[in-house]
Structures are given as structure tokens and as C-alpha cells.
Sequence to fold (272 residues):
Amino acid sequence: MSSLTVSEKRKAFRQLHQSGCFVIPNPWDVGSAKALASMGFKALATTSSGYAWSNGKPDGGLPRSEVLAHMRLMAEAVDLPINADFESGFADTAAELEESVHLAIETGVAGFSIEDSTGDAQSPLMPLDDAAKRISVARSAIDKAGGDTLLVGRAENFFVGVHDLDDAIARLKAYSEAGADCLYAPGIKTREQIKAVVDAVAPKPVNVLIGWDSDLTVNDLAELGVRRISLGGALARAAWGGFLQAATALSREGKFKLGAATPGAELNALFK
Fold:
């Protein structure tokens, strides 16, 4: 149970976005959150995919009620600010989105993101004006609640197969103008793409996703002007990779290839 107040966590989280560069890794349950908190990270972020997989569901397959309960659980689990992956806000109308944002704030998270994907393969992105309006609605709801919860605007272009950097930047700029505190275009990978996004929305902070085996380091990203670095479902995928590899060897070969299994005594000491 966290000993810091929600207000203290939100204040610390906002301060992290003022200067420098920090890594905000993504746990998927209380155990992984506590493990990461013990390593000196200054903030953590939920992962919609990682949590969904732990429930036997695909990314995006959980209802709002379960996601909100998970957000509350994670916010209460550690003495660190938690940023929540709140997907597209679980809302079709402005009124529904305002309600969703109010419920998200009540969970105690320090910040959350609203994305612009539709889930429709034929039309994967919301129209820009509609998506920007949703950020404005979320901003207004946060301000009514005191304004200390950080709002992240996400342009999902590269995640949904629309590899159009100019459009992604136009979206991020619109979300910034609509009141987003931090901007995020998951899926951009090259130095040129990252620098273009950072420059376009300056002085607002930018989050960059490092999903797997990037040759960029934290220092590289800091030099490009990135303020925070998240991993999305990558840590969950790493955990699932080890589990599935060991289980597959057992089921297909009858061999106990448990790999780099952490000793039980070490895990007991970690969670003591």
C-alpha cells in the first residue's frame, strides 16, 4: 500500500516532465510493479496489452470497469506515480468520455493517455477534429477535478499502419493545443522521426515508446529532446516469451528448459 497521497504523486509526476529524461517502464500486475519500484524508477505506467494478456484477453479486450479497477490497484500498490494506458477512453460521445475521465481521475493515477484509434481496420484513425475535441473534453474534465492529473495525447498512426509522419505530427500539435500535457506517437523509431516530433510540439514533453531491441539508448533519446521513455507491453512480452519457451519445451520435448528462472528465495525476499 502506498504511503504517499495522490496529490503528492501527481505533483512529483508533473515535476518529472519539467526537465531531463526519465524511463517509465510498464508493469502489468502488482508484483511486476513492486519489482520495478525496487529498482529506482521514478514512475511507472500501466500497459493495456500486458494486463489484457494476464487475463487471457487480447489487447483492448477488457471492459472499462476492469481497466479502472486495475488502474486503482496499481496506483495504490507502490509509492510511485502511475500513468495509465486508458486506451480511447471507453466512450463514443463527449458525455461518455467526460464520465470516463472522471472515473479515471478517481482511481488515483497520476496521469493517463487518450488515443485516437478506432479499432476499425478500414478506418483506423478518428478524424482529426473529432480526436482533438476528445482531448479538449478530457482537459476540461481534469480541470474541473483540480487539474493536477497529467493528460497524454496519443497519435496512433504508426500503431495502426498509417505510416504518415506529417499526419501524426499534425495530430499531436492539435492535441497539444486542445490541452494535452504530454504528446506520444507510439511506433516512431528513427532519430529523424523522433526529432521531428520533439521539435514540432516543443516545449511540451514527448513520450517515446521503445518496444523491442532498439539500438537507441536512454542517453541518445535524451539528446534528441525526449522527456520520457516507455516500453508498452515489451516487459510483459519478455516474461511471456520465457514462460512459453519453457512450457513448449516441456510439452513437445519432455525437457525442463527453465532458462533464467529467478530463485524462489530471491522473489520472496523482493516481496517481503
